[in-house]
Specification:
The protein is an alpha/beta fold. It is 35% helix and 17% strand. It contains nine helices and 14 strands. Strands 2-10-9-8-5-3-4 form a seven-stranded mixed sheet. A hairpin with a 4-residue loop joins strand 6 (148-149) and strand 7. The radius of gyration is 21 Å and the shape is globular. The model has no long low-confidence stretch (mean pLDDT 98). Bound molecules: pyridoxal-5'-phosphate (PLP). Pyridoxal-5'-phosphate binds next to helix 3.
Length: 356
């Protein structure tokens, strides 16, 4: 039986993407070769990379606006250090919003490169809300934020306005909602949540912000080098890029990010409505900052844990336990999660209510 997969990442992808990817593993483009054994320089794969790069920009509404999309390796964790390496001047400073564990990990890396100002932090309340009302120093080299905090289930619904370059880790909500993406100068996202399998990281960068910090940058960490090499500076993760392309094509066929966002809103509404209605549960994050991708919630009475766990497991649900730093449950309802699967979870929550 196919499970209802609530895993936070690697996570659910569209069923048709799994099917197309499986076929390509056996016979890619009727070439008689597997996608796993072809050269990344082959005509067929260069076409995959080119389409993936341009489709990523198209879906974000950034085509023809001076941006480049790259599919790199090393995960979002490598982007944590690439941002300061490429943007932070030797004697400059960077401004960071500390909204969760991953934001804190990005801050830790930036500190290795220079002065790193934390403009605000919600660490003191275990990151259950997004800090607001902070000032961004106008003389910082860039401002860094995390659009969706995967672990805590909070999401930025508004972004501060500033004249300095804005860098955003969108690992867990890329392509999930419409935003004015031209307000961001550097966006990065590990593929393994809303875009593809683990192994590639989407980077979307406004070219004009690069080459200005005067640092000598190792080639693999230099965004400009990757742009010049058309995202083929070294052997890219061929399969992960291909599966990402299939997912981007799926998003486009659904009607683009706007259409996917509508479905995401319906799924989040369904689940949060039940969390708020059902007296056995409570949400873990501040209501105004709730994430539409990672829904974190707790049982009011921990004694119900065993019964609830047995119920959702019996319903074919997988990947529901919360991160150890929050406890409770985390339902990751990424783009590919069908609303029918969310309904299964809601029904289980109702079933618990009538059972206890
Ligand atoms: C928001 C966010 N940023 C960064 C990361 C780290 O990504 P990676 O494992 O690709 O380095 C994660 C992983 O879950 C994440 O959720």
């Amino acid at each position: 039986m196919k499970k209802h997969n609530y895993s936070a990442g690697p996570s659910i992808l569209p069923q048709e993407v799994f099917e197309k990817a499986s076929k390509a593993v056996l016979n890619f483009n009727d070439s008689g070769l597997s996608i796993l054994e072809i050269s990344h320089r082959s005509k067929d794969f260069v076409a995959v990379m080119d389409e993936a790069r341009s489709l990523a920009l198209e879906l974000l509404g950034l085509e023809g606006k001076g941006y480049q999309a790259l599919f790199l390796q090393g995960g979002a964790s490598t982007a944590f250090l690439m941002a300061p390496y490429n943007l932070l001047k030797e004697n400059g400073k960077a401004a960071y919003l500390d909204s969760g564990t991953w934001a804190a990990a990005a801050i830790k890396e930036a500190k290795l490169f220079g002065e790193t100002i934390v403009v605000a932090s919600s660490k003191d309340d275990n990151y259950t809300h997004i800090p607001k009302g902070y000032e961004i120093p106008a003389d910082a080299d860039y401002f860094h934020c995390t659009s969706n905090n995967t672990i805590f289930g909070t999401q930025m619904h508004e972004f501060p306005s500033t004249n300095i370059p804005v860098v955003c880790d969108m690992s867990s909500d890329i392509f999930s909602r419409e935003l004015d993406f031209s307000k961001f100068d550097l966006i990065y996202a590990g593929a393994q949540k809303n875009m593809g399998p683990a192994g590639t990281t989407l980077v979307v960068v406004k070219e004009e912000i690069l080459g200005k910090n005067g640092r000598a940058i190792p080639s693999m960490l230099d965004y400009a080098k990757h742009i010049k090499a058309e995202s083929m500076y070294n052997t890219p993760s061929v399969f992960a890029v291909y599966v990402s392309l299939l997912t981007l094509q799926w998003i486009k066929a659904k009607g683009g990010v706007a259409a996917v966002e509508k479905l995401n809103n319906a799924k989040a509404d369904l689940l949060y409505t039940e969390i708020d209605r059902n007296p056995l549960f409570k949400g873990a994050a501040a209501v105004e900052d709730r994430s539409k991708m990672n829904v974190t919630f707790l049982l009011n009475n921990p004694e119900h844990t065993e019964t609830f766990d047995a119920l959702w497991k019996a319903a074919g649900i997988s990947g529901l336990p919360g991160h150890r730093s929050v406890g409770g449950y985390r339902a990751s309802i990424y783009n590919a999660m069908p609303i029918e699967s969310v309904q299964v979870l809601v029904d289980v929550m109702k079933a618990l209510e009538s059972k206890v």
